[in-house]
Amino acid sequence: MDKSALLALLASVERGEITPAAGAERLTNLPFEDIGHARIDHHRSLRIGLPEVIYAEGKTPGQVADIFSRMAEAGSDVLATRVSTEAVTAIQLAVPGTVHYEIARIVALRQALPLNEDEWPCIAVLCAGTSDLPIAEEAAVTAEHFGVRVLRLYDVGVAGVHRLLAVREQLVQADAVIVCAGMEGALPSVVGGLVGVPVIAVPTSVGYGASFGGVTALLGMLNSCSPNVSVVNIDNGFGAAYTATLIARAKRR
Amino acid sequence: MDKSALLALLASVERGEITPAAGAERLTNLPFEDIGHARIDHHRSLRIGLPEVIYAEGKTPGQVADIFSRMAEAGSDVLATRVSTEAVTAIQLAVPGTVHYEIARIVALRQALPLNEDEWPCIAVLCAGTSDLPIAEEAAVTAEHFGVRVLRLYDVGVAGVHRLLAVREQLVQADAVIVCAGMEGALPSVVGGLVGVPVIAVPTSVGYGASFGGVTALLGMLNSCSPNVSVVNIDNGFGAAYTATLIARAKRR
Amino acid sequence: MDKSALLALLASVERGEITPAAGAERLTNLPFEDIGHARIDHHRSLRIGLPEVIYAEGKTPGQVADIFSRMAEAGSDVLATRVSTEAVTAIQLAVPGTVHYEIARIVALRQALPLNEDEWPCIAVLCAGTSDLPIAEEAAVTAEHFGVRVLRLYDVGVAGVHRLLAVREQLVQADAVIVCAGMEGALPSVVGGLVGVPVIAVPTSVGYGASFGGVTALLGMLNSCSPNVSVVNIDNGFGAAYTATLIARAKRR
Amino acid sequence: MDKSALLALLASVERGEITPAAGAERLTNLPFEDIGHARIDHHRSLRIGLPEVIYAEGKTPGQVADIFSRMAEAGSDVLATRVSTEAVTAIQLAVPGTVHYEIARIVALRQALPLNEDEWPCIAVLCAGTSDLPIAEEAAVTAEHFGVRVLRLYDVGVAGVHRLLAVREQLVQADAVIVCAGMEGALPSVVGGLVGVPVIAVPTSVGYGASFGGVTALLGMLNSCSPNVSVVNIDNGFGAAYTATLIARAKRR
Amino acid sequence: MDKSALLALLASVERGEITPAAGAERLTNLPFEDIGHARIDHHRSLRIGLPEVIYAEGKTPGQVADIFSRMAEAGSDVLATRVSTEAVTAIQLAVPGTVHYEIARIVALRQALPLNEDEWPCIAVLCAGTSDLPIAEEAAVTAEHFGVRVLRLYDVGVAGVHRLLAVREQLVQADAVIVCAGMEGALPSVVGGLVGVPVIAVPTSVGYGASFGGVTALLGMLNSCSPNVSVVNIDNGFGAAYTATLIARAKRR
Amino acid sequence: MDKSALLALLASVERGEITPAAGAERLTNLPFEDIGHARIDHHRSLRIGLPEVIYAEGKTPGQVADIFSRMAEAGSDVLATRVSTEAVTAIQLAVPGTVHYEIARIVALRQALPLNEDEWPCIAVLCAGTSDLPIAEEAAVTAEHFGVRVLRLYDVGVAGVHRLLAVREQLVQADAVIVCAGMEGALPSVVGGLVGVPVIAVPTSVGYGASFGGVTALLGMLNSCSPNVSVVNIDNGFGAAYTATLIARAKRR
Amino acid sequence: MDKSALLALLASVERGEITPAAGAERLTNLPFEDIGHARIDHHRSLRIGLPEVIYAEGKTPGQVADIFSRMAEAGSDVLATRVSTEAVTAIQLAVPGTVHYEIARIVALRQALPLNEDEWPCIAVLCAGTSDLPIAEEAAVTAEHFGVRVLRLYDVGVAGVHRLLAVREQLVQADAVIVCAGMEGALPSVVGGLVGVPVIAVPTSVGYGASFGGVTALLGMLNSCSPNVSVVNIDNGFGAAYTATLIARAKRR
Amino acid sequence: MDKSALLALLASVERGEITPAAGAERLTNLPFEDIGHARIDHHRSLRIGLPEVIYAEGKTPGQVADIFSRMAEAGSDVLATRVSTEAVTAIQLAVPGTVHYEIARIVALRQALPLNEDEWPCIAVLCAGTSDLPIAEEAAVTAEHFGVRVLRLYDVGVAGVHRLLAVREQLVQADAVIVCAGMEGALPSVVGGLVGVPVIAVPTSVGYGASFGGVTALLGMLNSCSPNVSVVNIDNGFGAAYTATLIARAKRR
């Protein structure tokens, strides 16, 4: 409920169109009626202009499909992440026209008129090794769904730094950079030194032994000696894409 | 060394002005000669346009003053963070015209012509409690030194959420938000739900017992349920300001 | 064995009805004979007036059903938590009249005459997201079984704090509040600032990556800046309900 | 701002006494004007009826004394915890009539008319060894300041369980029990089995080697096999007293 | 190879019965030939007089059965711990006359003439709850196999300390005490205060959430305030029985 | 209060010498009156026959001296561990005839007639390096004070295993072995393979970096592949000596 | 791209054979064209002379077989580690002539003419127990594939140190030593004291309870009191063999 | 004691020159007589040919000076690491001709005739930042003392990877490479990809917040994606130099 709506309501009270008691009641409840069946993503979506998102892990296929179709009916673009095989089937049965990105474990629905792709901002998504691909693709597909052009620069780990230097020219075109890496998680520091834009580091759970399911990569990234690096949770490709999208869109507004 | 410089060098070889052997030598070494006494910050500074920075912790007062004056002589703006009392004195003796920000533990020198402040982008710096002030000020002073306007919104911790809601209107003007919090580190999640821009979360070492010197706040922030939150190291106000500056400046370019 | 029983025994010795040796023997063993087949829950149940409880995890279906029916035969109300599908079947075969709460993984038997529900004390059970439901329901069903009225306020996580503010009026009616949350575990701090009664925080194992199976939520809650928050083990909805019941019942005595 | 105030405001708008625009302004800001210079403790204090509290650690002696005297001028009771020697002196110079509890590191001021002590609720504060005394006293003095009678039962650690059994009769009179213990932190479990009221466990940083500054005691308490035990942060005697007070006061309302 | 064997060998050299070269060869290799195909348990067994033991976890059923039958052929008593169902079958097929202890996951073979049981030393094995039974039985069966009488005192956890006090008279007869407990691991401290013999504490992996698979119990036991408590690895019932046997046998020699 | 005292009390009730009410009262309180001023060490001391012990860390010099002289007046042997320089002076002023062991940080008083030293049992105390000496001496002096003969075998770390083998013959005379080691804590495993008696392992806080103040040594010892090794807390030389004394004395009874 | 290639290119520019623009283009891209399809292992392989290696874990059987056959076609020796049963089949179908080492989980292909084995350098691979065999064999097979002779000295754990001393003469022939051990990880320290060459320690995930999947062994090895010990990741037999090969080959060059 | 000495001894027994009893005695003790007063460093020094070393931390200045002068009297080169200012003075008073390396905290004495420096092998010591200098110098000075030529390549951290590439040509001349880095510890991975010799990684305790005193760097290095990296303890420059020396010397033998 924004300020103009508040003014309108109070004007109605002034004009005697609604009683003070009714006004008080509405002032308490309205903001949440307005956005309908009161879901935070919906509220955030309205305010920020990014499509609805469903985090499918820990929900039954039925629940995921229900939420997906309710959102689809409202006419918005929909994105579901961490979708199991069963949930993919359930969504596909419930909603026609969805696209399934298998490596990224994402199902998406496009309904809004797309922006002119030429005007899209651009980010780069890097990963250190091929095992990081699912997380890198979660980030890339999410960003594209949000209207961002993505440069995929994969398998550029630091043990062969010439591979990274070879893509430097592509890299510097991006408005924001996402770097996914497991094991020692050193790639964001090296990338951070090559670009002048924010780097969002995503530790992945790739590794064994003392990689502790991504904790080593996470700690390494938090201690990066490059000051333009910030970090999200282990395997959180979605969150990195969300932040990178907000950064990149700023450039074009 | 950018592409045009490379072309110029090769053209000199073509014209016989320099021998292939000399050209090979320069191609190996030149980029680092160009930026002089070979310091990464200098190199980054040239490329990105942010002033020189000295991380003073772990350096002697003499070393800090030396580096500071060498940078100052080169005409650039200079910022030194985590400066001890002794290092402040050493800098002040070596370089006239510096400003000392006591709470932020920063010494800064302004030499470049300032931008028109009206055109400055804007960020907000929040902190949960008064004990977080040194880190919040490190972030705020750094950002201001980088040419960013800062809204300081302090002591708005989640145990009294009405305090935070009271500053919501100011909050939504910012192009990026920095949130400093110790103890349970919950503030970035609540702030993330109120704004549509990136939130840089800074865990602080404020707390006792099971706060483990900021680790609890760090973990809480990494697990934020708000997707627009990314995180930097414990007490790293400088890094948060660096990234927030890069985000905010994008808006104005 | 309470004081009056002790006095009666000594009076028998005084009257010569039992010898000192027999008296000494009984003084050593009697208290545990009295409560029969010597189980702590039984003893606690007698003293405190709460029904018998079985923690089913780590027991075979047969063992769970045996204990359940032995308690049921003694006429008491019985509650079994963390019950597997197999154990549910075993109980239902052994004891008629039980109720199975599927989400809460609880099987319960009501035999005592219920108190007048109007006189029941009231607690609120909140959870941050839908994945926290099993733990929240374990708490809610347990409390109801113990004779407490429960306000269920679910999916009110801090990333959309307006959702929580919308239920504030209900919240302040409770004599004690249970808050279940995973990930960053920030909800108890915000709730603690809104109410004037004890808040029992239950970290849940919901999350991924650096949530460490609930450890991050646990640490966050222990560091809460709201002084009316105390904490139980990860996923321990039962324990939270036990303590909340003891608090709420005090109000009505 | 409660509902009646809201109705009054809207009635003023209806009567044309204030314009809609002014009403909108006040609806946004008023609740926080009401409680004055917007400090959460003040707000909580008004609502709950407990005195103002200052956590002195991490504040300068001057800051502590300033806040203390501002609160004292408002006529309320004041409690400052974790007070350094310097801060004690600063408070005593600024505010006459305070009491300094040395072991508890607390300075308190009583201004309100005391309740009739006979009507005070009662809690017990136990500790395992003499090294736990500072935390136990922080809890005990805080609770007394909040109008609660305290049974101090000290040095009753589990390695000599007969000592604890000897105080059982006193123990069962309490409306809530606080148990402070370091090292293995086993005392709350044993106490929890002896009483039918909530037990608030406070791990202390007492111990060496694998006690890890209280972490071992904390973990032990979280895993208590007594279901009436909940836990606060390491050394947080104040928080335990706050919650215990809320529990105990419920009995007498 | 003991000293007398060494003297005999050298005497043979002196008498010219064997050459110096052959003697040198045997001095290098003999000690390990003597105890056969060089297995440490065999060597230890000879020296200490305890039967052979096989730790079956991580070995294939075939390997376990092979080692078991090779030891059995040598005429010694044999004990295999942590035996899977498949390994049990493999042993039973390979060696007649073994006994399978199901809860303890042990298969044993008795071949030596038993000592007169009346002369056996005695230990007590306690456990806190029924879930600790597998570990307690691993300890009890192992000790009995080693010729020690075992008092089993189960389900005497500290949340109902009267249960423990009821068995105190039995407890004080033991020459050593083994205490198995999971969750908070508090039982050894209480037991340690009741007896004047060494207490071997075995943390078990029983528990959930912040019990961390037995780490909390382990830490609690290491910090025991009873000075007669020492600790073995999580779930190491076998090791506790080994040490307790060495202690108890000393009494009877 | 033993059984005969209980029988005597009940006989008095039978004879009418005391009333049932008075008897009930005494049955509740007497056992703890008997041991007087109710200190667990005193109680344990009476039962087990080991001298009184004071853990001085965390007590003021005055407190230590007070307790020491109260125990000395009772005629018992007294041992104070972890004694600061100030506390040593305070004890020496208060009690004549004490002995100060500087490296072991122990002050002791001998008052009882000593046993014939020839009949003393014998233990060995080993340490890996010279930095472990304070802990090894704490163990050795404590055991001697308890009437045990101590073989000191120092600086026999595993990086030069021939040093350890050279003392093997002395080692096998001991009734129990204490092994102190920091860093990787490997010594107890090697020693455990050389002897047929219990080995009490004491991790020390000696080391740097990833030794984590003794945690690495502690973990290593808990995972010892020698089954006769049990472990006490980091730097707990006293506890190791206490348990080793109980083991060794069993041999001679 | 080495220096001579660079000189040749520049000479072509000088002679006008290629334009400066084309030269600039090639200087940016050429080094990575040279090594073809741009894979780090290939690049490293060319430079160092060790065969190609595939880390199969986390790749599908199809991916593994594809990479394997592409490398085989290039004529090089190929080694695949951590190969699942399915991947073994896939490789065997795709490439004839491979050898499968089952315990080591390795598939290898030999194509190059072997060196004269008599000239091979020599390393020793030790392991503490039979459960460490898969890792020890991963190291041994890898080294042999790289042209190193391997002394396998297995089951020589420190609890029976005579077993290790018996192989000392073999041990001292090695140019480098690899030691694999789980549990307390003490073996490298003892071995380090017996040899004058580098010891590469490999912690294995063998153990239970407080072995934490190899972390205890890892920490023990990092704290080794033998200065010639360095450490690789848990279960990283391959990496140890890689480094040991580089060390051993130096001897023969 | 080697095989020929053993044969000689046995021949003496054969010839009746010594009795079997005396022979047995000598066979038990001799090996340790040979190396004199039985100190491991001395023994190792004799066998390997590296000078004596004293780890001074945790020893008193007097102890350090005593050991130093005893070694010096034996004519050997001596190296003392981690030497405090007081210990430096003590050594200088006791032994003339020593050299003090201040940054490296080392005191050294050269007595042996130096090798011809031209024949020395060569290693490189790299560090990421200037704060790593004390550890890098500990490594460099140690290696030089052991007769190794050292290339010092400092301040080449990964955030400005061009700095590292600029020294690549020097780097590839080394027979072994030591890399010291704190914070994220990424440098060894990048270096490992540039060279074909073993890389010894030394994590340093440089950093703050989530660097955890070097643990983050340690974990990063253990998870290096370069297979030629092995790791030593945090800040263990000495150990790295020891191993690197053994590697480098192999090249020249």
Report how far apart the termini of chain A are.
24 Å
Order of strands, widest sheet of chain A: 6-5-7-8-9
Give the total of beta strands of chain A. 9
Which fold name corresponds to the CATH topology of the largest domain in chain A? Rossmann fold
Number of domains of chain A: 2
Kindly name the structural category of chain A.
Answer: alpha/beta
The main β sheet of chain A shows up as: 5 strands, parallel
Mean pLDDT of chain A: 83
Dominant shape of chain A: globular
Order of helical and strand elements of chain A: HHHEHEHEEEHEHHEHEHEH
DSSP helical segment count of chain A: 11
Q: Which chain pair shows the most residues in contact?
A: A-H, 33 and 33 residues
Second-tier CATH architecture of the largest domain in chain A: 3-Layer(aba) Sandwich
What is the chains' assembly state? homooctamer
| CATH class label of the largest domain in chain A | Alpha Beta
Low-confidence runs of at least 5 consecutive residues of chain A: 28-43
Radius of gyration based on Cα positions of chain A: 21 Å
> What fraction, in percent, of the residue positions of chain A are helical?
40-55%
Amount of beta strand of chain A: 15-25%
